[in-house]
Amino acid sequence: MTFDQVHDLQQVYRLILHSMSRPGTISSLTDIAERVDMNLPCYDATILSAMTFFDAETTFHILSEDQQELIEKISEYTSAKYAPINEADFVIVLREDTETAIQSAIQNCKNGTLIDPQLSSTWIIESTLLSSEGELTLRGPGIQETAQLHTSFDHSAWHARNEKTKEYPLGIDLIFTDENAQVVCIPRTTSISVMGVS
């Protein structure tokens, strides 16, 4: 079966929305990813997420340098335009990006305003294998008591994210992807504590 951009991206949208409304819940895009044949330097779940949410009205930023081909392909597939980190609606973090680059980008990305909190950036972040057993404890709306999660974000990146989201409704929303075409979401409303870090 070939990739059906309309039908398959609607399904991706529903799955990511499910994970966004239930933070820490891992959803699988495997069936859809198996039909993707784009040969890009990113995970299938990453490009599927981009194609689902980007359009001609949105801007995006890729942290990694020397990714001109990927930038051009994403623009070609979605009509979205590339922008500096402080102007981008979406930020893509590839698996090779360093924690230093990630922390700097979190500090400099769009965070919305009290009048327009929706003008913040959403992040699509490539991770090592996502797992519901891990060092993170999640609390907040959509979670029954607590949830556990493992991602490749280290504690300093989570600290930077927590600083960015401490003045609700300001904050950034995170979509993690992995090589097995799994996704998990951490909206700004979710409280994150890292095991062993006070």
Key terms:
198 residues; 7-stranded mixed beta sheet; single chain; 3-stranded antiparallel beta sheet; globular; alpha/beta; 10 strands
How would you characterize the overall build of this protein?
It is a single chain. The protein is α/β, with parallel strands linked by helices. The protein is 31% helix and 22% strand. The chain is built from six helices and ten strands; from the N terminus they run αβααβαββαβββαβββ. It has a seven-stranded mixed beta sheet with strand order 1-9-8-5-4-2-3. A three-stranded antiparallel beta sheet has the order 7-6-10, with helices on one face. Helix 5 packs parallel to helix 6. The chain starts with a helix and ends with a strand.
Give the SSE layout:
Elements lengths: L4 H17 L5 E2 L1 H4 L10 H10 L5 E4 L5 H11 L2 E2 L7 E4 L5 H10 L13 E5 L4 E9 L7 E4 L4 H10 L8 E5 L4 E5 L4 E4 L4
Strand content: 15-25%
What is the CA-based Rg, rounded?
16 Å
Structural class: alpha/beta
Enumerate the spans where pLDDT stays under 50 for 5 or more consecutive residues.
none
The largest pleated sheet is described as:
7 strands, mixed
Number of helical segments?
Answer: 6
Listing every helix as H and every strand as E from the N terminus to the C terminus, the arrangement reads: HEHHEHEEHEEEHEEE
Taking strands numbered 1, 2, ... along the chain, how are they ordered across the largest sheet?
1-9-8-5-4-2-3
Count every beta strand, where a strand is a DSSP E run of 2 or more residues: 10
Mean pLDDT: 95
Distance between the termini: 49 Å
Can you give the helix content as a percent range?
25-40%
Shape: globular
